[in-house]
Amino acid sequence: MRKVTIERNTNETQITIQLNLDGTGQYQNQSGCGFLDHMLDLFTRHGRFDLQVSCKGDTWIDYHHTTEDIGIALGQAFSKALGDMRGINRYGSFLLPMDETLMLCALDFSGRSYLNYDVAIPTAKVGDFDTELVEEFMLGFVRAAGTTLHFKQLAGSNSHHIIEAMFKAFGRTLKQAVAIDQQYADEIPSTKGLLK
């Protein structure tokens, strides 16, 4: 079972994450931000992980620290759950349509942190959530997980749809990348012999 619990406590946020990579898409996410909870729920269901996120953050300021720190803690959880990456596919990609939006996501558990964020969200907010925080979430994840992550928006005009397509595609992409390839179950998928 690739199942972990992560705790991350700072002066700005107190976060607990429970992650099961081999779950069924069950979620219980309480970030303190309704829109972020919605995105985490979508991410979890489409990735078929089991995820519980609990965060107490300084949301009276804004959602910046909460969003960024959950991204970091989630990246740490994936890294810990995957261990030495033995047997995983390593790579994943997904092209996700959502109404007028078309989003491409591709990921490599390379051990090298890089985010290519080719996304244009037309509004500054969705509800009370600052849309620029989506990039902060993804940056936090890639830095903590050691992944190369690409998003390319091929179409889209509705901010909610664009962000939702990103999180759904991200979940589907991670599902592929962390899946065990039984032909290579005892191998680390790199000629270097390590991915950390």
From TrEMBL:
Subcellular location: Cytoplasm
InterPro entries: IGPD_sf (IPR038494), ImidazoleglycerolP_deHydtase (IPR000807), ImidazoleglycerP_deHydtase_CS (IPR020565), Ribosomal_Su5_D2-typ_SF (IPR020568)
Keywords, ordered alphabetically: Amino-acid biosynthesis, Cytoplasm, Histidine biosynthesis, Lyase
Statement: the UniProt record of this protein carries the keyword Cell division: no
Top-level lineage group: Bacteria
EC number: 4.2.1.19
Pathway assignment: Amino-acid biosynthesis; L-histidine biosynthesis; L-histidine from 5-phospho-alpha-D-ribose 1-diphosphate: step 6/9
Catalytic activity line of the entry: D-erythro-1-(imidazol-4-yl)glycerol 3-phosphate = 3-(imidazol-4-yl)-2-oxopropyl phosphate + H2O
Record-linked Pfam families: IGPD (PF00475)
UniProt keyword Methyltransferase, yes or no: no
Recorded family membership: Belongs to the imidazoleglycerol-phosphate dehydratase family.
Protein name: Imidazoleglycerol-phosphate dehydratase
Organism (species): Clostridium facile
